[in-house]
Design a protein that fits this description.
alpha+beta, Beta Polymerase, domain 2, 7-stranded mixed sheet, 7 strands, rod-shaped
Length: about 375
């Protein structure tokens, strides 16, 4: 699809070694929120705290009712003004947040709270839902897993939900919402006959469902690492385990607050969420709990992988040491016998006997065989 979940590579230029300092800094940058707002600045100051991910901002509109749908791209926020008070449901999506003045224009047209506009531009926010006069504000993170680097890419998705409209803001094109777009185009299910609150549910549900795909891929990686840690553990295995543990932190940071978000939406007494939509929101709440359970299970397994790796390496070391110890134990008495007959004494009776040399060899072989039989019976071999 044109806007399918094809993953942009936000890690281009990062060295492949998971422990190189450049990558470590990038991981820490994903865990610690960047602050570019000047301390003491007034609330509602519009500053984009992320990076420029697209060259040009793209604004698309999906306007529909039960009978028809129109989809188009516009060049400015001002062209969205006629849809503010229309009787149809309108979904306006903006790709690119590097021009705060465009977000300010949307805020002026649709009456967004200044703090909402500030949160839209401040990427790295904790998932949350807020109720403001005339609209709801929902913030979530979309997750995608890079197939080669195995790094989780998180992108903030901001939703402003009004009576008959939804504004969505993303840092770049490409998301996990194509299934919703396709349902709207084809008129599948109830989505075209419901209001903006049902569309908000569909978008949130698509984001939560996409978590399962990411976790399934991570689960496959965990299973492969588990087999590798048991069969052929190497230093690279340890690096991959550490790398995966960091990615699980990123996933947990994005997923855990979603349960509280959905619980808050269910408790809200607002006319913007109809009673027949709350049933579907409860289903998303159940999905979010399942996601959290999966994340915690994977974190437990990943946490145990390091113990498994160290145990396997320790067992292999013990096996090597056991073999070396057995060999040393066998050769200790043989070395003693050879050392005795290697002394330079003139009066050694055995040296004058013809069968002394083969007798010494026989004694040494008997000692070696006897020790091997003894170790075998003890189960050490």
């Amino acid at each position: 699809m044109a806007r399918g979940p094809s993953l942009r590579d936000p890690f281009r230029g990062i060295l492949p070694d998971p422990l190189n300092p450049v990558r470590t800094l990038r991981v820490m940058g994903r865990l610690v929120r960047r602050v570019t707002k000047k301390p003491g600045a007034p609330p509602g100051t519009l500053i984009h705290t992320g990076v420029k991910r697209v060259e040009k901002i793209r604004i698309t509109i999906l306007d529909y009712d039960g009978e028809s749908i129109q989809e188009r791209e516009v060049g400015s926020a001002a062209e969205c003004l006629p849809f503010r008070d229309s009787s149809t449901v309108t979904w306006i999506n903006m790709d690119g947040l590097h021009e705060p003045e465009v977000v300010a224009q949307f805020g002026e047209i649709f009456g967004l709270h200044p703090l909402v506009m500030e949160d839209i531009l401040s990427v790295g926010q904790r998932p949350k839902v807020e109720e403001h006069e005339g609209h709801l504000f929902v913030e979530m993170n979309m997750l995608q897993l890079h197939p080669e680097s195995r790094m989780v890419h998180e992108e903030q998705l901001s939703l402003a939900v009004g009576e008959n409209w939804i504004l969505s803001f993303q840092e770049a094109a490409g998301d996990v919402l194509d299934s919703v777009r396709e349902r709207l185009r084809l008129g599948k299910g109830k989505i075209r006959s419901r209001g903006a609150d049902y569309l908000a549910y569909a978008l949130i549900d698509a984001v939560v469902d996409s978590y399962f795909g990411v976790l399934e891929t991570v689960g496959d990686q965990v299973e492969a690492l588990e087999e590798e840690a048991i069969d052929e553990p190497t230093s690279r295995t340890m690096r991959q385990i550490h790398d995966l543990r960091r990615e699980m932190i990123i996933i947990r940071k994005s997923v855990w607050p979603v349960r509280d978000l959905m619980a808050s939406m269910l408790r809200m007494e607002t006319h913007l969420i109809h009673d027949d939509t709350r049933v579907f929101l409860r289903d998303v709440y159940d999905h979010s709990v399942q996601v959290i359970d999966t994340v915690e299970n994977l974190r437990d397994v990943v946490g145990g992988l390091m113990d498994l790796y160290l145990s396997t390496v320790g067992n292999r070391t013990n096996e090597v040491m056991k073999v070396l110890t057995i060999m040393a134990t066998i050769f200790i008495p043989l070395t003693f016998i050879v050392g005795v007959y290697g002394m330079n004494f003139e009066h050694m009776p055995e040296l004058q006997v013809a069968w002394a040399y083969p007798a010494v060899w026989g004694v040494m072989l008997a000692v070696a065989v006897g020790l091997l039989v003894f170790f075998r019976r003890k189960g050490w071999l």
